[in-house]
Design goal:
The protein has helices at about 15-35, 40-50, 55-75, 115-125, 150-160, 175-185, 210-215, 260-270, 285-290, 310-325; strands spanning about 5, 80-90, 95-100, 130-140, 140-150, 195-200, 220-225, 235, 235-240, 240-245, 255, 275, 295-310. The chain has about 350 residues and is of the alpha/beta class. It has 2 domains: about 5-75 and about 310-335, no CATH class; about 85-300, 3-Layer(aba) Sandwich (Rossmann fold). It is flat and about 85 Å long.
């Protein structure tokens, strides 16, 4: 078993330089072509500069962009986990149930309800140290996306992959998510278990209050975060590359509204807290402040404690690309023009 990670993943932002460099090259190439046209007809000008190559500058650009990508990866320090150790910590177990129904694509909480929740959860995971975390996704059904774990790197990875298409049945089965959460905690952690449900609470299809009562009997505290607008907004979908509002079978634009009442009742039933998310804050930090007040107990977990660096292959590849780029001239070499190693004229 091994886990791949980037030790300094912020350096991957250097990859954004690639499209910028490409645009600058295209603009410069366009400017040079315009300059050549001022000297006369394009065909005649090309005859006057027979050594000019059209493909070599493009090849050099590709090589240089590949080097930039390789250097970005090297700086980010790719690693494979090589050793797992069991650790014991004092903490709590928290399962986050995230609504991934189509209504979570509404953009009243920019960039969308779902993306805003994912961003906040990713920041939260970065602050964890001693607690276990699990992840459930739900729409018409509920599924365990990440079993309860102390592997925060995996938690962030699974968070980034969440989207509505991963749950085929639409709806908002909050009760199913709670029932699945009850079964997903580690055995023997009756005093330090909490759930956080993030949803717009709309169109709940089962009985979430009955499920909340079962959670309360099991000693599980459920905190709820309502994300969305009570006034209602349309749902924006990406259909065949076009942004269109979601329609019902009659062709009417679907309006999604936040249902706060059901979320408040779930929280009250389990002695939890309800917070309504806004554009400026999701409320996750406040919820976790409440969770940290809970009685902590010793929890066991497995984590990677040693990692093998994997930058060497990227360093070797970038060196070869640089050598090739250095040897490849932008103009044709007359002395080598008769040499046809691959019988390809460039």
């Amino acid at each position: 078993m091994s886990l791949f990670r980037f030790a300094n993943q912020d350096y991957l932002y250097f990859l954004l330089a690639i499209p910028v460099l490409l645009i600058l090259w295209l603009l410069n190439n366009y400017r040079r072509r315009r300059a050549l046209l001022r000297y006369g007809e394009p065909a005649l000008v090309m005859e006057l500069i027979p050594d000019r190559s059209g493909i070599r500058p493009v090849l050099k650009l590709i090589l240089q962009l590949m080097v930039v990508a390789m250097i970005s990866i090297i700086l980010a320090r790719p690693q494979f986990g090589s050793k797992i150790e069991e650790v014991k910590r004092q903490g709590v177990e928290v399962i986050i149930a995230l609504d991934v129904s189509n209504s979570m694509l509404a953009e009243d909480i920019p960039p969308s309800r779902l993306e805003r929740a994912k961003q906040a959860l990713a920041r939260l995971v970065e602050t964890l140290a001693n607690d276990k975390i699990g992840l459930i996704v739900f729409a018409g059904d509920a599924y365990v996306q990440l079993p309860i774990t102390t592997d925060y790197v995996s938690a962030k990875m699974f968070l980034s992959m969440i989207n509505p298409s991963m749950v085929p049945k639409q709806g908002t089965a909050i009760g199913s998510a709670i029932s699945l959460g009850i079964r997903s905690f580690s055995p023997g952690t009756e005093k330090s278990r909490a759930m956080i449900i993030i949803t717009d609470g709309e169109n709940h299809e089962d009985d979430p209050i009955a499920a909340a009562r079962e959670a309360a009997k099991a000693g599980i505290v459920i905190h709820t975060i309502g994300i969305g607008s009570p006034e209602g907004v349309p749902i924006m979908l990406n259909i065949n590359g076009k942004r269109e509002y979601m329609k019902d079978p009659q062709g009417n634009t679907v309006i999604t509204k936040l249902n706060e009442n059901i979320l408040k009742e779930i929280a009250v039933t389990t002695n939890g807290k309800y917070i309504r998310a806004t554009a400026s804050t999701t409320g996750i930090e406040q919820i976790f402040a409440e969770i940290r007040k809970m009685q902590k107990q010793e929890i066991e977990g497995k984590i990677f404690t040693e990692y093998n660096e994997q930058f060497q292959i990227f360093a070797g590849a970038s060196l070869l690309l640089l050598i090739f780029d250095f040897l490849l001239m932008e103009r044709k070499n007359r002395k080598l023009s008769g040499l046809r190693l691959f019988r390809i004229k460039i």
